[in-house]
Amino acid sequence: MARDLKLANWTWTSAVAGAGVMAVTPSSPSGDPTNTAAAITLAVASGTSLRAFSDAKNVGGWRTSKTQPITGTLTVAQLQAIIENQQAGNEVSAIANDPALPGSTSYGEMYARCAVSIGAQTTGATVTWNNTGFIVMEGAFDNGVGAADTAWSPVSAAAPLTLPAAQLAAVSVTATSSNVFTTVVPHKLVIGDFVVFDSIAGLGGAGVPVAAQAYVVQNVLNATQFVIAAVGTPTTPLVITGTPTVNSLVRKLLSGNGISRIISLPLVQTVRPWLRWAVYYNTASTTNVSTVNISKTSLVLGKDNAVAY
236, 233, 247, 245: which is closest to 203 by C-alpha? Predict the structure, then answer.
């Protein structure tokens, strides 16, 4: 079922200065407006908190923003209506009988929607995926002169860059069949998924994985068993021995190798009209080479079949 589109195509051209800012390379997908996609490089010094932002848009939904400066010509009733709508998180125009633009809706019914992919890569050896990265929409008040204020706050749920897949069982990886990991509950992994291990305690062998580095699911035997391979050689199982620590967590990257995934983030009630996309990440590696790619950004009424967070 199609959803009402409120606003689309955030751009990525205003670089934010300062320490810990990730490099953003804007691009223009075929058929889309200029600079409406971005490749965000996850690469800085160890232990640094990183961030990257899109350009901001005023999402008032009317020809005049609800934060437009109030003039002395407004009546008491008009002022009261503006205040009540702001408190309720609804949109309101300062122009009497002003028709709303298509899709004008309470923020409480809106989803921030985009396509996300983890950049295609040939090796996971220099990529560290900690459980700290996420994508979120942020909001700011108007500064009174038609631009966003400098104080930004999250106004949506967050989509993590790594998702918990399952906990490992204390079963030897060579007990049933060579190099097979067993999980406590169904893992829901499919061939080609990227996974990372929080801990590799108890494991050994020539292909023993490195904690927090990406590996590809080479085979899925059943709902609780899978085999991994190196990112550069996805069809060759790694040679692994030993028994993992019970309940060690396996995480799945938000998307596969360069494959886009649609996500929808429900917006909270807010009176902040300026919105932007934000990506946060914390690295423990100095040689990260991966990217997070974002495109097809929009606000919609409802989420279709996208994954919601």
Answer: 245
Q: With the CA atoms of 293, 298, 302 and 305 taken in that order, what torsion angle do they form, in degrees rounded to the nearest 10?
A: -30
Burial class (CB in 10 A: 0-12, 13-18, 19+), 249: middle
The H or E element that residue 286 is part of is none
The CATH class of the 163-253 domain is mainly beta
The H or E element spanning position 298 is strand 291-301
Distances (CA, A) of 105 to 101, 278, 303: 10, 22, 14
pTM, entire model: 0.77
pLDDT of residue 96: 56
| Contacts of residue 10, Cβ cutoff 8 Å, sequence gap at least 6 | 36, 54, 55, 57, 276, 277, 297
- Per residue in 71-116, pLDDT (tens digit) is 677 788 877 776 666 555 455 555 555 544 444 445 557 789 999 9
| Cβ(207)–Cβ(230) below 8 Å | yes
| Residue whose token pair is 């030993």 | 242
Q: How many CA atoms, within 13 angstroms, populate the side-chain half-sphere of residue 15?
A: 12
Class of the 4-61+100-161+256-308 domain?
Answer: mainly beta
Contact yes or no for 154/136 (Cβ under 8 A): yes
Name the β-bridge partners of 11.
none
For residues 254 and 281, the answer to whether their CB atoms sit within 8 Å is: no
Higher pLDDT residue, 83 or 65? 83
Question: Which 8-state DSSP code applies to residue 85?
Answer: H
Domain boundaries, the chain: 4-61+100-161+256-308, 163-253
- Mean predicted lDDT score pLDDT of the chain: 78
Residue 197 forms beta bridges with which residues? 250
